[in-house]
Amino acid sequence: MGRYVIRRLLQMIPVFVGATLLIFLMVNVMGDPIAGLCGDRKCDPATAAQLRREFGLDKPVWQQYLTYMGNVFTGDFGTAFNGQEVTELMASAFPVTIRLTIVAILFEIVIGITFGVVTGLRRGRPVDTGVLLTTLVVISVPTFVTGLLLQLLLGVEWGWISPSVSSDAPFGELIVPGLVLASVSLAYVTRLTRTSIAENARGDYVRTAVAKGLPRHRVIRKHLLRNSLIPVVTFIGTDIGALMGGAIVTERIFNIHGVGYQLYQGILRQNTQTVVGFVTVLVLVFLVANLLVDLLYAVLDPRIRYA
Amino acid sequence: MRGATHARWAAGAVAVALAATGCGGGDSGGSSGGGDSGAVLSSSWGDPQNPLEPANTNEVQGGKVLDMIFRGLKRYNAKTGAAEDMLAEKIETTDSQNFTITVKDGWTFSNGEKVTAKSFVDAWNYGASLKNNQKNAYFFEYIQGYDKVHPSDGSKQTADTLSGLKVVDDRTFTVALTQKFSTFPDTLGYNAYVPLPQSFFTDHKAWLAKPVGNGPYAVDSYTKGSQLSVRKWDGYPGEDKAQNGGVDLKVYTDNNTAYTDLLAGNLDLVDDVPAAQLKNVQADLGDRYINTPAGIIQTLSFPFYDKAWNKPGSEKVREGLSRAIDRDQITDTIFQKTRTPATDWTSPVLGEDGGYKEGLCGDACEYDADAAKKLVKEGGGLPGGQVKITYNADTGSHKQWVDAVCNSINNALDNDQACVGNPVGTFADYRNQITERKMSGPFRAGWQMDYPLIQNFLQPLYYTNASSNDGKWSNADFDKLVNEANAEEDTAKAVQKFQQAEEVVRDNMAAIPLWYQNGSAGYSQRLSNVSLNPFSVPVYDQIKVS
User: Fold this and answer.
1) What CATH number should be reported for the domain holding residue A218?
2) CA distance B487 to B96
3) What is the pLDDT of residue B275?
4) Residues A281 and A259 occupy one common structural domain
5) Domain count, chain A
6) How far apart are CA B54 and CA B201, in angstroms?
7) Is the domain of A169 the same as that of A239?
8) Same domain for A57 and A169?
9) What pTM was estimated for this model as a whole?
10) B211: burial class by Cβ within 10 Å (0-12, 13-18, 19+)?
11) Which of A72, A144, B16, B263 has CA 20 to 30 A from B1's CA?
12) Residue B58, C-beta contacts closer than 8 angstroms, at least 6 positions apart
């Protein structure tokens, strides 16, 4: 087990370097960011040259990348154009997005898996058809439509919630945005769980468990669910990264000042430091989440052993 | 439990009484007009692009804050745009080149420090100095010694302070310019010229975290990227004291969300109504929507460094294109009348005395398909058979209007291929391509004035090698007239000269004027007396909150 984890951690290094290099190059291809800082006019050439020097933009790209990575390992993620340190931006953005992701994941787990189990056990019944239809609708409607609709109905028409999230972004205000963010994944989790449960319900070990005279809830929880959850766990695990990085739309709609907001602003302003910094952290989140998922397999299915 | 119930009743009674007296106080006060001078309003905001230093803020979001917490020598009247004395007691000159400025007595910063001549001179020196990376440094370029503190070729600066600035005594300083510039005093209302307290220089980091100024508001708290709260400064010595208790500026990523928040009663003031909502705004807000002219003009510039656009007869092609654009229709359908078809190269906010001249463009800005066809043909046809209008596609619904302009040109010239849009992904990339002279045809040019002077609409844009002359247009007649206008001591005569220069722009069609942009804002029922100044910034200090 230990050796497996170490091997996986070592594998992360090339993935990490490759991913950051790619992002770095992509942001660089967009061109010189200084020109965008002066509004609809030409930057004063002397000031522009000085700024370029200060941000290291006058050096060749490979050198910029090496300097940047060197700084990252000492915990210095650089400075954004508005004078704020990127670490400062991260300290304010990540807690918000993590809270939002937690809310979304909870929705996926609680609602998604419950619906999945219920429909999987009652295949072909009205409940099953109803939930399937609903998930179909949720999957086919884009997130921004769901988001704007809920915002307008709950926020403006009925006045149940505030249409935007305050800058502190406590859990209570993140419920509706979290639901919107989770909606599509939630539908997938439901469908995955349903299929998985339906398949395994015919398994020999389930029949044996029933034949042993185990109570029904125990059969479902201990035997059926545990085996059926493996694909679902994979999905949710990879979804953590996707939710954190992909919340741009939801964060914009509800004015949440999280990772998506910083990334969006960073891209618009071609702020290499912000974009690369945030994406680097997101890449790390992805890698760690994937590792955790793989380790979880062993817990869920004793047949899987890592050596 | 009974006691608690009583207490609640008592509190209720006190509240009612307070409300009653509060109301009575407002009535007897008269000037507050029923507004509660202690109440705070919330307003939409965007994250400023640069640190909040006066000489480093060149966009409207940071400008909004500076406008609240600073007062300069002059201030532009929110209605007329005229430059009026604020901290300046008098600005004297005999030759339009050397100025003696006297600062009014009795002004202080909100931290108690006195505003003196030194506060101005230090601030201006800081703004001009290359090592401070101030993006508005060029505002000081006419002051003597600028080439030493800010060498344009990027070589090392040889001085730290401008030799043209001298402190005479506590309240007097002199400014020596490199050339005659009669309207120089009127430019001093710009944010880059405000005074700065000593703490700005001694503890710069702390100052940036919580800026200190001399305006009617003082910064209460500033959480970068999410909210800035200013509160009324009771010790403010000026006459334009704040009529409300303060303003909470909230950062919105998307102006649609801000608008939704306004409808839900979660926000008091939105100063940028999203284009998509313009159709509903009358139904949603009724008379709580304002739409007033701002000092912004949109034009199409041309690459004069490209031979194809700079040969004899090209001006006819340009004029033909101008006549092929149906400005009325586009401003009606796409902008819902939040823009006005342009008939000159300035802005209506200047007023007639300031140099705005309706119809100066004449026929050249009138839509006429036949004339357009004829002019383009006479001019030798479109270069390459097609014009590509380049624009940045990331903000400001540029795509919609460029497509509409192209449609209009295609229809007028009876040619489906006459015009296409050429989008560029980001604003920075767009600006890069412009500075690197990569434009192959007309390109979008927006100009927001720095100060309400006709000079500001002409010289930076069309003077040979001027800072924002992106098309590199150059015309000796124009340059000569601008020089003469700047040397003219009588304002009315100077304006006339500038208008003559503008006629040169017209005769050559150096840029096609499209439309004047309006500022728009919507507000909640709590507010009254809301207006926008010519820079499309809400006049916060006059807003009354009930």
Assistant:
1) 1.10.3720.10
2) 7
3) 77
4) no
5) 2
6) 13
7) yes
8) no
9) 0.83
10) buried
11) B16
12) A38, A39, B50, B135, B136
